Structure formats: structure tokens, C-alpha cells
Amino acid sequence: MQRLKILGLSGNISRPSRTASLVRAITAAVGKLFDVDGRVIELADAAPVLFRALRADQLDKAGRDIIDAVEAADILVVGSPVYRASYTGALKHLFDLVHFRALTGKHIILAATGGTQLHGLVTEHQLRPLFGFFNALTIPTAVYATEAEFTGHELTSPDVAKRIDRSVTELAQLFRRADANSGNSRSSPQREIVLAQT
């Protein structure tokens, strides 16, 4: 059976990055839930490759590998620093290159970082509509963190950790319901889901 593919996408365009730290923390939590390793792509690395193409048919092999990884993922953790009240242009360009049907039914956890709580709704007003266009399933609880919730660039806030736990729990509930509806208690013919004990 094919195991779930979990991919984190961090919209940071510089390093070190609080956003990348947040995306890694969420991706690791999802990986523990399903007993698989998750990979994280940072736009600081991917953007120079992707900006060599303005359309998907112009992608070189390195760019195509990045987009293929996004389209093949079963679960995406997508985070961005807030830049001018929205997600970064580099992250937008990545999703401009993703096929519009490739994310249908995929599960997405949304995350963002910002200087203050004033930007906390960027996940609802910017990121969630983006994945609505792709017909993806965004998890109800998004994860937002401010600079004060990090020590250096490492996430240290117990409140944010609780939101991560809530988001991952909601993800697990969605998979359990899907399995129950399909008549399977643990897995389906197309995927192997190993849920950790909760």
C-alpha cells in the first residue's frame, strides 16, 4: 500500500526564518500522527528555480521536481510570512505553476507568521480562498504566530503548540471519517494510514 506523502511549504524568502520553523513544527507533528517523514521546501531555495519559468510548460527539471512534489502530496502544510497584508509573491508564483486540478481533495494545514496579531487573519482572507480555488480541503484551525512567540527563530510558545495540536487532531478526524465512510477502519486500498494513539 502507498503511504501518505506529507509536504511542508514555507513561503520565506530569507534565512533564518520563523515561518520555516513553524512549518517544520507542524509538518513534524503531522508526520508523527501518520508515522511517516514529512519533507519541507523553503521558497528561499525553491523561488530562484521556479522564477526561471513564467508558465508550467517552461519549467526545467529542477522546477518540475518541485511542482511534482507539491502535486503528489496527500497533505500539505503551507505557511508564509505576512508581507504587505498577504502571503509572499514567491509562494503565489509556486501555486501559479500548480495544475488547477492537482490539489482537489487534498488536505491542507494553513500557517502564517507576522509581527503582530493584527495580521492574524491572513490565513482566512488570503490563504484559505487560494486553496478554495484548488478545491482542496483546508483544516479548520489555522496556525498563526507572532515574533514574540519565538526565541530567536525557534518556536517556543505553548499557545501556538496547542493550536498545532488542535489542527493536527482535526486532520486526523477528517481521515477517520473518510475511512469510516469508505468502510475501512484504518486504511483504504490507495493509502496506508498509521494513526498514532491519541
Automatic annotation (TrEMBL):
Keyword Protease attached: no
GO MF, any single term: oxidoreductase activity
Superkingdom field: Bacteria
Pfam families: FMN_red (PF03358)
Keyword Flavoprotein set for record: yes
InterPro entries: Flavoprotein-like_sf, FMN_Rdtase-like_dom, FMN_Rdtase_MsuE-like, NAD(P)H-dep_FMN_reductase
Region Disordered, residue ranges: 179-198
Domain NADPH-dependent FMN reductase-like: 5-146
Record key words, sorted: Flavoprotein, FMN, Oxidoreductase
Comp. bias (Polar residues): 181-198
UniProt family annotation: Belongs to the SsuE family.
Name this polypeptide is given: FMN reductase
Species per Swiss-Prot/TrEMBL record: Phyllobacterium zundukense
Record lineage: Bacteria, Pseudomonadati, Pseudomonadota, Alphaproteobacteria, Hyphomicrobiales
